[in-house]
Amino acid sequence: MAADKPKFRSRDAYGRADRDGFIHRSWMKSEGLPDDVFDGRPVIGICNTWSELTPCNAHLRELADHVKRGVWEAGGLPLEFPVMSLGETQMRPTAMLFRNLLAMEVEESLRANPIDGVVLLGGCDKTTPGQLMGAASVDLPTIVVSSGPMLNGKYRGCDIGSGTSVWKFSEAVRAGEMQLKDFMEAESGLSRSPGTCMTMGTASTFACLVEAMGLSLPYNGTIPAVDARRRVLAHLSGRAIVTAVKDDLRLSKILTRDAIENAIRTIAVIGGSTNVVLHLLAIAGRLGLPLELTDFDRLSSAIPLLVDLQPSGRHLMEDFHYAGGLPAALKQIADKLHLDAPTVSGQTLGEIVAQAECYNDTVIRSLDNPARTQSGIWVLYGNLCPGGAIMKPSAAGEALYRHRGRAVVFETIEDYKARMDDPDLDVDKDSILVLKGCGPKGYPGMPEVGNLPLPKKVLAQGVKDMVRISDARMSGTAFGTVILHVTPESEAGGPLAIVRTGDEIVLDGQERRLTLLLSDADIAARLAEWRRVRPVQRYKRGYYQLYVEHVLQADKGCDLDFLVGSSGSTVVRESH
Ligand code: FES
Ligand code: MG
């Protein structure tokens, strides 16, 4: 075994002529690996969230093979391993409940195994954030290869978008504007290839942020899942991770405060999902980087929406890629980015952006012709949300940016679903729908129910938007004047818990205020007599209990309190 090679972490297992080295190597040889692959070359873990229960990631076994080609070619040893997969559309009560569990599994798998660098294969909403949180707490050289978006949805000659069209069509059915059988027909045309939601939902947003943060090769965010160029990207990522290991390019050298600031500005340009606020806060917490909820508003809200994609705009991810992809969009705001930020490609972000070209300015708009002037993330404060709340102005109705209305309150989402079509529901278009019990502890897991369907009675009047307030999240594919992530959540005894039907609430988006028109004394008195609708003690064992006892509130990213920070990659004790 050559002494002149740099000593990688894997040498502690594979580089020893003793009993422990025998054990580590011998069992691996059962996979058909020859002697000389243990010669000191970089060992690359391919951390795969492939699963048939996560349709957005169902092609990742095949993509992993292309990563392996690149690793072998560059002189590394690729070893693929599975981790928990989180299928956004299949898991209940919400995939978000399990993001931190995935993060724990990734962290411990990376640290415990003799690997020198890792390629994270993920895509569906919670998979990549969970993987990155875990990877950040170990800090090996890390590259992300995303699933890529599925092909544009098609229905009767028109493009339809993941999630966004589902929300639109289901409201049209409830309003009597669309037949149920036509709605059902759209089901097969919407999701017609592997890959993630092809609107600018959470998965596409996060894949673009990964690219903006330099954690992937260029165009990782936009190349369609089934496009041969995604297999090329996987192949090249296999080569790149070997180089990254040789250069000791650890995750923390790429994922810096500057990179996160670039990501936050990217949210505005692309009209990204509100969910990434939680994920970036949690990732920053793992790395010990300072990041506050208010940073999202400060850094993003002066940047207009340029990428005209659903749910804020019109087009879909295929269109974005063919129009030039993320680098072409970032080129428009280059003067607001940290262009010297390094990327795993070896180029700086500035070098990548400088080479970009826009091929379709109806999809990637110019600064003097934006899709919307208001974009990014608004962070609201007030006596209803002392720890903050957020809204996405590009997906909201401008007419409701400033609104005063009477609260119509629902203690649970089931309560709302049971009453939303009731003709006797005391609601009109100016009412503010208030939903409780959907925060991280309350649900538990903070589901994507904040974009409440409108009450049937209001829909029948042709109304398309109302102010909605909750401690829930909403799908990145959703739209409306929806105030989310109210902190503290109702289950934790936040003021949201004591709002009653008939109370008046004022939203002032431009001033970033959300106010319950009650005196401090009245709020305090109601809180003093407030009792939980359902006791938290329902969860007496297992992961649910761990989660409910330890989850942080939304303004801290909903990580588990004991997972914040990093433990590095060192393991000092042997297994036998
Ligand atoms: Fe998986 Fe949208 S459901 S990315
Ligand atoms: Mg989602």
UniProtKB/TrEMBL annotation:
Matching PROSITE patterns, A to Z?
Answer: ILVD_EDD_1
The UniProt entry's sequence similarity note says: Belongs to the IlvD/Edd family.
- Which residues belong to any copy of the Dihydroxy-acid/6-phosphogluconate dehydratase C-terminal domain? 363-558
Sorted alphabetically, which keywords does the UniProt record give? Iron, Iron-sulfur, Lyase, Metal-binding
Q: Which species is this UniProt entry from?
A: Rhizomicrobium electricum
Show the Pfam families listed in the entry.
ILV_EDD_C, ILVD_EDD_N
Q: What is the protein's given name?
A: IlvD/Edd family dehydratase
Gene3D superfamilies from the xrefs? IlvD/EDD C-terminal domain-like
Q: Please, which domain of life does this record's source organism belong to?
A: Bacteria
Where the record annotates domain Dihydroxy-acid/6-phosphogluconate dehydratase N-terminal, the positions are 41-351
- Claim: Flavoprotein is one of the keywords in the record: no
